[in-house]
Amino acid sequence: MSTLVAMAGSITSILSHPFLRHAFLAGTGIAASCGLVGYFVVLRGQVFTGDALSHVAFTGALAALAAGFDLRLGLFGATVAVAVGMGVLGRSGRADDVVIGSVFAWMLGLGVLFLSIYTAGSSGSNGTAGVSVLFGSILGLSGGAARIAAAIGGAVCAGIVLVARPLLFASVDEGIAAAAGVPVRALGVGFLALVGVTAAETTQAVGALLLLGLLAAPAAAAHRLTDHPYRGLALSAALAVLAMWAGLTLSYVFPATPPSFAVVAVATVIYAAAAGRGTVLRGLARRGGRNPSGDNGSPRAEEVEHA
Hints:
Radius of gyration: 20 Å
Strand content: under 5%
Order of helices and strands: HHHHHHHHHHHHH
Number of helices: 13
């Protein structure tokens, strides 16, 4: 009982700070959207796309700052436009490695250029904005910005839920989905647009350098833990939110720990635990001559049809 009272007191203490309430509000929406989007990113083998968009987010934000605009304009404008462009140039709405690699190199070069322009024209008071883009500043969000972040995260979650069934079908068996009348290409491009929105919003929480960790690690863990697609979607979102909450709590308990590092570290530990569980199950199955369930990471076509 005393332990529960102590835990309740700690939670009350954390939520008594307005900046932490804002961080938990924004972080919940951002993490949930990362979990849902990330599940399909991993399923469709587009993790490299998420990595490229993290660099696009950095470049877009610096371009907006260098031009004197709100960095969010550059974040969302650049990531969504480039994500859609990669989908259009790729096969069946999927960005291929050649397109991603070209965008990757180009955006890195532009990022260096805009960083030089911005730092050359910035005063000491606003010169840290580039660092916040790289590593996130979720504890610095105002109440209005936190509500906007949560709303955008909720909208992305709603979008993923709406297209989940046809997107699952197209992701598992693209040819059969196209033959069944599913607009595979349009669906792929639309999904990449959602990935772009998620990447832009997540940059505010964990930064451009670390957003891939929150996008991929909880989703990869969910793929390790279950083969059922809808159960995996829910689990991916739950694990991402857990990583966000635990990371923010750790950064409060240990003030020297940056929240972005703490969030991604927890997400990585979650994935490591899921991967370790899979290794143990495979070892036990080999000894018993059985096939372990819930560890192949990919839903089968018949599971999608009956989901």
